[in-house]
Amino acid sequence: MTENTRSTVIWTKASMNHAINIRRYLKENFSDTEVNSFFELLNAFEEAISYFPKLYPTSRQKTRIRRAVISRELSAFYRIRKNQIEVLALIDNRCDLAKWL
Q1: Taking residues 72-77, what's their average pLDDT?
Q2: Exposure of 41 by Cβ count < 10 A (0-12 exposed, 13-18 middle, 19+ buried)?
């Protein structure tokens, strides 16, 4: 996979559920501005990794998985598979990472 071609980004069922739960939390506790900002962050992340899959570093625990710190509160974990990027999880950076890895 070359850096100047665009890869397909696939979201796993788990990562989609994480995004839905985060959206629900934001909708219940914050304004539409924060909800929209969340989706803008996800879109920017997806766009970046589609063109530059190796943009973010590999995880210390699992070297085939990369961790993208999207914001102070949010990280995404993904892996590169042939011609696609698979987003595995979205997590709150304030939680215990050991339960996720």
Answers
A1: 94
A2: middle
